[in-house]
Amino acid sequence: MRKPRAALPAVVAASFLASSCYSVRVQPVPAPEVRDSTNIRGVVLGEGPDSETFEFSGVEHVRWTEAALIVTGVVRAPGENGDGGTETISFPLSDVSEVLVRELDGTRISVIVASVLVGTAAVIAFAVTGKTKEGGPIGRIR
C-alpha cells in the first residue's frame, strides 16, 4: 500500500478551513432588486415564539415571484432531526418574515489566516535553526 503524499493532509485541512469561513445569519426579506443575488439557505415563517424555521442543507435553485419564494433543495424541516430528500417548496411571501443567508464571516477568516501565518513562521523557524529543544537535529537536517 502506498503512503499518502505529504500534501494530502494540508489539502484536507484547507478544505475544512475554507468551509468553516461561512456562517448563516437571519436577515429581513430582501428588497426585490437584490433578491436574485441573495444566497438563501432557509426561511422563517411567522414571527415570535410561534415562528417556524426551514433550513436547507443544500439549495439547488431559488426563484422569487411577486407572491412566493420557491426553493428547491434538501430541507431540514421543523421538528425533524435528519435531512430529507430534495424537494421544491413554495413559501407565500406574506408568511415569510425573515430569510437565512449564507455569507463569509470576516472574524473566522481572520483567525484562520493568523493561525496559518503563525504556523508557517514556526515551521520556518525550526527548519532554519535545525535544532529541537533538546539540541538534537530535526529529521535529516544536520
Could you walk me through the main structural features you see in this protein, from its secondary elements to its overall organization?
- By secondary structure, the chain is an alpha+beta fold.
- It is 26% helix and 36% strand.
- It has helices at residues 7-19, 106-129, and strands spanning 22-28, 40-45, 52-64, 68-76, 86-92, 96-104.
- Strands 1-6-2-3-4-5 form a 6-stranded antiparallel beta sheet.
- The longest helix has 24 residues, at 106-129.
- The chain is elongated.
- The relative contact order is 0.16.
- The model has no long low-confidence stretch (mean pLDDT 76).
Short description:
With 142 residues, the protein is an alpha+beta fold. Helix content is 26%, strand content 36%.
Strand order of the main beta sheet, please? 1-6-2-3-4-5
Helix content: 25-40%
Q: Give me the count of strands.
A: 6
Largest sheet: 6 strands, antiparallel
Total helical segments: 2
Give the overall average pLDDT: 76
Q: Compute the separation of the termini in Å.
A: 31 Å
Principal-axis shape: elongated
- The helix/strand class is alpha+beta
Q: Report the radius of gyration as a whole number of Å.
A: 23 Å
Portion in beta strands: 35-45%
Low-pLDDT segments: none
Element-by-element helix/strand order: HEEEEEEH
